[in-house]
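Reviewers of the previous submission asked for a worked example of the structure-prediction workflow described in the proposal, so we include one complete record here. The input consisted solely of the amino acid sequence. No template or homolog information was supplied to the procedure at any stage.
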Amino acid sequence: MKGTRAAGRYSKALLELAIERNELEKIKDDALVVLNAIENSRELQNLLASPVVKPLQKEALLVQIFASHTSELTVKFIKLCVNHGRGDILEQVFEAFMTQYRAHKNILEATFITSTNVPAATLASIKSKLEHATGKHLEITEAVDATLIGGFIVDMKNYRLDASLAGGMRKLKKELSK
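From that input alone, the workflow returned the following structure tokens.
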């Protein structure tokens, strides 16, 4: 993927600077703002990717978009990226920043899949048990899959916990076929 190594270097520099200035949480919030804006605006994606728009024009437009919604450090960082010809990988830079932020904070992303929405207390209990088992803080995204008959599935980085009825039936079938 184009710019992946550069995105990693830029995001690492931003993470280190945010830690040094004790602004890590603010920069994390800013990263989410920038990512949300890029993901939800085709015009912004086109602007960042355009080789026709000059860096100074991109910089001015990006400052106009983000100055009132993000910190001064984030705006300066965006300007630096654009001035170094990295405006086209700005989304990858902030995605890499979020990955590095989660690693720094010992946070693991997980998707909790059920057939219906579950009560908050149930989700909190499962989250607590998984955090204890993994030794990490979990950032859980809920998903509903109507094809599940019952139970739940938790997808984490390199692990899948299948406690669904269908998963149990597959295991039983496999055991019986031996």
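The beta strands are 107-114, 137-144, 151-156, 159-164. We consider this example representative of the routine output the project will generate in years two and three.
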